[in-house]
Design brief:
Blueprint: H1 2-8, H2 11-23, H3 28-34, H4 36-46, H5 49-63, H6 65-79, H7 81-91, H8 99-113, H9 135-151, H10 155-171, H11 177-183, H12 188-192, H13 195-201, H14 232-244, H15 250-257, H16 260-265, H17 267-282, H18 287-309, H19 319-351, H20 359-373, H21 378-384
Amino acid sequence: MLPPLATKASPEASMLLKVLAKQMRMQKQELLMNHFKYIFSYLVCHCSKEEMEKALTYVQALGSLNSIMELMGPKHITAVRMKVMATLKIAIHFTEEDFPQICTQAWNTFVHKLEMRRLSENQKSSFFYLSVEDENFAYDLVQELVRSFLAAEDTRIQDCASYALQETLQIYTCQSGELSQIVRPSNSLWNRFSEEIQEILVPLQHSRYIMSSNKRTSFPCPIYGSKLGSTFKDWACNWASCLLQKIKRENTARVFQSCFMIVKNDVKTAVFLLPHIMVNVLQDASNEEKEDIYREIMAVLSHVDQAEQSKLKFHEKTDLCHLSAQTVFSILDCLTVWCHQYFVMLRSSNQNNSKPANKGKGNIQNTFWIDVVNFVPPLTISHSVKL
């Protein structure tokens, strides 16, 4: 029933598809994408010879997409990145012939051609750290935790920030005096902080805060729209806490676990850490964990899509809808920057070595990137980016 309706391209067929999608509790576009392979097979079996030849011509256009992006350059690619992502997202679903290889090449060209400084205009910096081991990440994390400590409205939140700072200073061996000079001779991290910040940090070098409970917390999926996600603060804090528990690499998990309690209570810290948490979760996520992330993102963006379709004015959209969507796209932008920087680092590393030892790892990151962009249906992107 679905393939013939999809090929009709008439107002009546479109209306029937919307009714069918509503009965299945999904968007029309999601219904079509989920059943794309059946629709595609039907089209191939029932199209004429002339239509098939025309379709093959369009495939060769796809093959020249790399050249088109090369000609456009970073400035113009970045300006239309959402539309390019939407196009490439559709192409991912084709697995016939050379499509997977063409699509992977197109994604690589797209990521390499993005202009990083224009990606995150609402961010303080368009640079995204490749690893939590980067001293710059440690510096920004401490600064954020100090902000949370000073802004705390009650002693409980201040204690959570104090614990996070205490643990972070220990993890990065950020100490004043002789101890720091032994462990980190340059003492570079400590010296980067102002005297005012150092005065706050000194007592925490010897404090003994402990986390009241290390018990894992259960969360519904999706969190958005549930009792734990009825406000933006609740959603952001609880989603960050949920993702934080899925990080598998021991050293990385230790960094984020130290921030678990403050993330649950301070929405600004939660939003600051969410992109970093997401990068580290996705690199080792199981299929089930990826599906959970997909469902969470779609819960947010489907709400935005409904708001667009109901033609609500900008000021009538709730903070939950607007801020959550902006947070999701900020995360996607950061993931784009991370992938770009990783490929640049990998390419530089391979150029400096006669044997490209990281070639296999690069292929892993290609898969990782496709997993990332595969989360968000293209038409949902086009609606949400209008916010």
